[in-house]
Amino acid sequence: MPARSAKPVQPIWCPGCGDFGVLAAVKRAAANLKIPTHELVLVGGIGCSGSIHNFLEINGIHALHGRLLAQAVGVKLANPALTVVAAGGDGDGYAIGMGHFVHAFKKNASILYLVMNNETYGLTKGQASPTSQIGFEGNVEPPFHAILTALSVPAPNFIARTFSGDPKAMTAILEEALRFNREGRGFAFVEDLSPCVTYNDTYKLWREKVVDVQTLPGYDPTDRRKMFGLCLDQIDQGRLPVGVLHRPADTEREGLEVKLLGERPGPARSAIDVGSNRAQYEKLLAALA
Ligand SMILES: Cc1ncc(C[n+]2csc(CCOP(=O)(O)OP(=O)(O)O)c2C)c(N)n1
Ligand code: SF4
Ligand SMILES: [Mg+2]
Question: What residues pack around ion ligand 3 (CB closer than 5 A)?
């Protein structure tokens, strides 16, 4: 029987939500890379953004709040042949999910983590999130900058930022990120600036503030230290750096699944019948005796 994936439903997002741009870019990037729909798994977080998997013809999981990365890494380790995307919001990833977020860079499993940052908790009607500006809904704390944290972890990850107002550039970056994953090179983090038109409509403001890092003097995405400084300078000037922020110079297969499994297919595609595993099973029993 041919492999099948779930049928998508119509998006439930507000008209104009930035997440529509992400949906279109994910579709186009996957189609350009000719990824069969049944080989693409999207693990969604809790939030408006996290429902994206329901609108795509793929295999999807709605994860626990802030725990989508653990599930996505689990899927990849179970079957490394799958292309795995974890997608959620700034609240999901940078508040309740913060511990998992930081470890994901160090773990370096070859999955894409796509965060739709709208600087608010959209689904629960517009409260302040970790990325909210001072003054938004009474917020007095300075915003968290995920790209700086991403650049501060010394690991061979792919790191980028996009803007829903530029879906063409987003598609190209998502394509590069997915290619990086599919080559087994490790973790890819893409933060999309995705305005919440209902509770925090930042389209106009962000269009004025985004700056393509490629146009900045000294741009070198292989040099993490330099890119951290470059992004920090832009943030200090009130700008929003977008583009590829880190692309490892070497092309080694550094993914966690490669380190743990080598060329083995992973437990989901391994023979589990008693006959072929009896010798190992008896060895294990003897070791426990
Ligand atoms: C354990 C738990 N705590 C809190 C909530 C309530 N809750 C649902 S979505 C959400 C935050 C959503 O914000 P974000 O991740 O930024 O997604 P957005 O809706 O903005 O896309 C919260 C706090 C929950 N569902 N589960
Ligand atoms: S509330 Fe905001 S984030 Fe949620 S669907 Fe509407 S515009 Fe998008
Ligand atoms: Mg949000």
Answer: 89-91, 118, 122
Which of helix, strand or coil describes residue 83? strand
Ligand closest in space to the Cα of 195: 2
Global pTM exceeds 0.90:
yes
Q: Which atom of ligand 2 is nearest to the CA of 118?
A: 3
Residue 43 near residue 61, CB atoms below 8 Å = yes
Residue 33: Cβ-neighbour burial (10 angstroms; 0-12, 13-18, 19+): middle
pLDDT in tens, 18-54: 999 999 999 999 999 999 999 999 999 999 999 999 9
How far apart are alpha carbons 13 and 238 in whole angstroms?
29
Mutate to test the pocket of ligand 2, among 49, 131, 197 (most ligand atoms within 8 A of CB): 197
* Superfamily grouping for domain 19-288: Thiamin diphosphate (ThDP)-binding fold, Pyr/PP domains (3.40.50.970)
Give the domain ranges of the chain: 19-288
pLDDT value, residue 91: 98
